[in-house]
Amino acid sequence: MSRKNHKKRRFSFFKLALVALILILAAGALLAYFPVLLFSPPAVAAEEGPEAEGGIGDISSLLRGETVNIALLGFDGAVSPDKEQNIYRPDTILIAAVNFRSGQVSLVSIPRDSYVKIHGTDIYDKINHSFMYGHYRAGEGENRYESGIETTLRTVVDFLGGIPLHGYVVVDLKGAESIIDSIGGIYYDVEVEVRDDFGRGRLLVEEGYQRLDGKKFMDYVRNRAGFQGGERGRTERQQDIMIALLDQFKEPANIPRIPGLYRAVKDNTDTELSFSQVLALGLLGLRVNPDQIETAVFSGSGQLSYRDGQNIWYLVIDEQERVNIIERIFGAQVAERSQLTLPGPVTPEPEEPEPEPEPEPTPDPEPEIDEEEEKDEPDPDQPEENGEKEPEEEEKEPGDPEDPEEEEDEETDQDPGADSDQNEQPAPEGSNN
After folding, report:
1. Helices and strands per DSSP (H, E), number in the chain
2. Is residue 87 a contact partner of residue 135, using CB atoms and an 8 Å limit?
3. Which string of DSSP letters, residue by residue, matches 165-194?
4. Residue 219 to residues 81, 94, 177: CA-CA distances in angstroms?
5. Which of 53-57, 276-280, 363-367, 407-411 has the highest mean pLDDT?
6. Three-class SS of residue 98?
7. DSSP string of 267-278, one letter each residue
8. Are 138 and 167 in contact (CB under 8 A)?
9. Which helix H or strand E contains 136, and what residues bound it?
């Protein structure tokens, strides 16, 4: 190789590096000073007019600073919009509030069993059922998947009192294993061991510091054993491991893995964020200190309500805490609503069966009389004719079946309906629990 060609290659390399540096600086300046250009208007904002329950009007007056809110939804199935016939449930609902001026990032989680009003309906249900309502309410020619996502996001906006969402990312939890495996796993200090069968079965993940591959990662973030904090414990652990994952994404060792990571993310996520928005968020992530990420989880009390023939468990969010978290995370003051209270479980009483009608008594059968036998039998009061001697009556053993009088006595002594009254008593039906 000639020196001239060598210098030319060196010049091309430095030129490329200089262009990349200029682009990074330009993106950083755009990120720091013009976030509104990247994330405005919001993907999902409060609808026009004051909110029915919260009294929210102009949403722009609620925000103090340039904060961008991204919804992260973890679904339990493939997230391809082409598969619009499927019903999904967002088992993970997390909002990332990113302040581009200060670099502050906050993560707030809405538990999937939260009892909320479904957008566009008068129905209160679990927030992770919101996709189903949107799916079934899609009009003719509308994409059911997109309608489900829209209803889910607007239900979240309503729950937050009108706080807008500037974008969303949907992750297929079944395909998230490949995303973790694409970066060689994640090193993490597992707080609690994980066993199947709600913590009573086979050991899946040991406690302690270790490298989690994709399968163990998903086993850990899905664990919600009751004695380990239940749904709230799982939500808090999801936030912690997401922060650790963000920190490890920034390591130089993961740079060669970017192509594989890109393919895994592309195949298992769905988002309407543009490339420039993703780039801006990625650059911000490089300068975020994970220790300074603020987290919050909406909480409340578990309550039961009788619905569709069974008692359903809901998480009724504490209203005062909801207002406080929204003010702390999003810097907005929203109206406090009336605290919801569910009626509690119902034990339906078993229906008494209608008594069966008693059988009508059957009349005693009259004995049959043989006319020929009656004619042949002589009358004892009449005198003998022709001097014939009256035959002596044949002596019979008692109980002889040939005696019609004894047969008649046996039949009349027995009550015709006695067996029916004793054996056909109606049995009460048991209640179906």
Report:
1. 14, 14
2. yes
3. B-EEEEEETTTHHHHHHHTT-EEEEESS-E
4. 26, 19, 10
5. 276-280
6. strand
7. HHEEE---HHHH
8. no
9. helix 130-136
- 383 prior amide bond cis, ω within 30: no
| Two tokens, residue 98 | 């990113």
CB count within 10 Å of CB 148 equals: 25
Q: Residue type for 296, please? A: A
Residue with tokens 């682009």: 23
Beta carbons of 205 and 216 less than 8 angstroms apart: yes
* Amino acid 88: pLDDT: 73
- What number of other Cβ atoms are within 10 A of residue 261's Cβ? 17
Alpha-carbon span 190 to 207, nearest angstrom: 5
User: Is residue 50 packed enough to be buried (19+ CB in 10 Å), middle (13-18) or exposed (0-12)?
Assistant: middle
Closest by CA position to 173, among listed 261, 71, 87, 79 = 79
Q: What is the bridge-based pairing of β-strands 167-172 and 67-75?
A: parallel
Which helix (DSSP H) or strand (DSSP E) does residue 93 occupy?
A: strand 90-99
CB neighbour class for 135 (10 Å; exposed up to 12, middle 13-18, buried from 19): buried
User: What CA–CA distance (Å, rounded) separates 8 from 6?
Assistant: 5
The average pLDDT across 247-274 equals 80
What are the start-end ranges of the E strands in 258-364?
Answer: 269-271, 294-297, 300-307, 310-317
The pTM for the full model equals: 0.68
Given a contact cutoff of 8 angstroms between Cβ atoms, the answer to whether 165 and 44 are in contact is yes
What's the pLDDT tens digit per position in 264-294?
888 888 888 877 777 777 777 777 888 888 9
Question: Who contacts 345 (Cβ-Cβ below 8 Å, separation ≥6)?
Answer: 304, 305, 306, 311
pLDDT tens profile 24-53 = 544 444 444 444 445 656 778 777 543 433
Q: How far apart are CA 23 and CA 137, in angstroms?
A: 45
